[in-house]
Amino acid sequence: MELELLTKNRQRRVALLSISMLQDTLEQEMLLVVYDITARKEAEEQLRFSSRVFNQAHEGIIITDIHGIITDVNPAFCEITGYRREEVIGKGPHILNSGRHSPDFFNRMWTAITEHGYWQGEVWNRRKNGELYAELLTISALTDDDGQSRHFVGLFSDITQTKQQQETLELMAHYDVLTKLPNRVLFADRFTQAVAHSKRTETLLAICFLDLDNFKPVNDTYGHEVGDQLLIEVAMRLRANVRDEDTISRFGGDEFAILFRDIDSQDECEFLLRRIHESLSQPYSVNDLRLEISASSGVTFYPNDNADLDTLLRHADQTMYQAKMSGRNTYKLFNPAHNRQTMEKQQWQQQIRQALNDEQFCLFYQPKLNMRSGEVFGMEALIRWQHPERGLLAPSQFLPLIADTEIEIEMGQWVLKQSLSQLEAWHHAGYKIEVSVNIATSHLQSTHFIDDVEIALAQHPQLDSRYLQLEVVETSALGDIAAISKVIKLCRDVLGVSVALDDFGTGYSSLTHLRHLTASTIKIDQSFVRDMLDDPQDYTIVDGVSGLAEAFNRQVIAEGVETVEHGLMLLMIGCDHAQGYGIARPMAADKVPDWLNHYQAEPEWINCAARPLTARQQALYLFELTSQRWYQQFVAAMNQSDEQPESWPIIDQRKCHCGSWIQRVKTQGLFDALWLDRLEQAHAAWHQTAIKIREMCMTGQAAKSRQYLNEMVSRFEAMQAIINSAQSPLKQVVSGPRQEDNNPEKDRAID
Fold first, then answer.
1. Three-class SS of residue 550?
2. Non-local CB neighbours of 228 within 8 Å, separated by 6+ positions
3. Is the pLDDT of residue 747 over 70?
4. With the CA atoms of 591, 596, 601 and 602 taken in that order, what torsion angle do they form, in degrees rounded to the nearest 10?
5. What confidence score (pLDDT) does residue 737 get?
6. Confidence of residue 745 (pLDDT cuts 50, 70, 90)
7. What CATH number is associated with residue 713?
8. Burial class of residue 586 in the structure, from the number of CB atoms within 10 Å of its CB (0-12 exposed, 13-18 middle, 19+ buried)
9. The whole model's pTM is what?
10. For residues 744 and 435, which has the higher predicted lDDT (pLDDT)?
11. Number of domains making up the chain
């Protein structure tokens, strides 16, 4: 009989008690044998504990032999992987392979296990149902007493949820939630890497700033949900049209940035940009809506534009704005030289604003005259800047710097108020003249323009508003002729202010303007008037505009009258009103009364206007004016030995004024055909001599060319004799070029 007994001592120990019965003939004896089995019982308990740990652990456990064959797995393994124990015993761990790790990954893993006896890291595996999961895995090598590996134990936990949370946080930190594109933070990181790569490979990288055109109306009309879907579609198109190495980022709203890496040339980048713009401009279908938008973008290149990321983005943004201003749905490339000009322009704008606050500006006034009557009926207000260091500056030196800015509107308001104050002062002094004020396009199209004019007039209640004329540049109506027309009508009908179309003829739709814009006055641009004596095409334009103004019952005034001959030609055309240096230069306001008191009308203009001329007489008059002008210019160029072709008058006898005149009157039936033939022959002979002289001057033989001057004079006189034979009302002695007291060329540009 055997019994297990628990001994009573300081430690609980287990003993196996064996009792044997011995019997002999004489007496009976009992043999008691005791064995200590404590160690065995502890080992059994340890095995039971290890079994509980193995089976109840929440981490998956996988045991393989040295060949990688699975010998055991715990229940947590089965719960995590979806495999039953009997499905994996005898197989390799490769049944869990997700395919997301390269062979090099596993080679490095087993190298670490071999060298260090363990490896720990994150692994993506695949469950039985095909679902991927992430695990934190520790692999340890189990060795025997001799240090030889006998088994490998893998202990892992499912960290898929943790990884997903990390990815979500990373997405929020580095990606735009809506489009899933990189945000500014990740874009900056990619840029840093790209710069390092650019320096190593000596290639360009480009920063593109892109803004959607007409996105706001879509958002406002259809709501943010449609707008968001449209942005997602835009992001998809951007991804489809850039390379894998490029980075697209959404900066917020409808603004995107693109980082182009490994650019060999600007042409390569422009190819990508054209492809992007073409794709983005195609129609979109969102919630059964057909939407059409486009994009404008600006691009700068590193290291050509050697700056940090913020500066590069600012340069690209500025250039994108230029693309929008040029018509949208296009791109512009950043020009460092142009950027310097922009910075200088901004500095000038600050100076101009300060100068406006410091009252450094003043107004000059140029008279407007009725040449037929000699009456001065108005003044045009022209701004000047009395610069403390550079002296008196003309408007051409500072007005272009503030075009389309708030400063331009503020300056326009100042000019309007100053002009009305001066006009009222002249009226009180007895000078009943009008004042015309130039209105910038941005001011005219501002929402408060009518209010500005009304408030300015209200400050002078005694002043009749019809004495104020607003001069609107014709090209300002190109943007929205309906809106401009409405403003002009309000000025005329509500405020009683007249409006003039300035620089007429320089726009693209003058007939449309005459039809729809109810301006009372048409001002012919000075570039046409100034050259009408020399270029028959400019004469035709001036004549045509004057005729159109008469047909539409508009008053016409010619700018750029610099000589008596300009005025005479205009009077024959039928244009009586004029202004220009031939009448008076712009003058300070305090000089105007004295000039008005001493002005005397030009006698030749008064006489010409007083003489009724037939169509035949007007034609002869025009021939004499233009031929004498041509002769004076030719002699001036010859005396200067000028080798510049542009300084000579038109040398082609068919294209000069006289040649055009001959061809024109042939169709009018004003002159006898034989007489015209004689005049045409004399004109051709005159030009032949002129061509000979000009060629000699152009080849450095000016002194030798003078031997032909008498021949030229003789032929000119012969031509004039033919004109005189037709009883021209104008007989003048031929002389050299008229010596002008002033030099219109010198001051022409300031107005």
1. helix
2. 178
3. no
4. 10
5. 37
6. very low
7. 1.20.1440
8. buried
9. 0.59
10. 435
11. 5
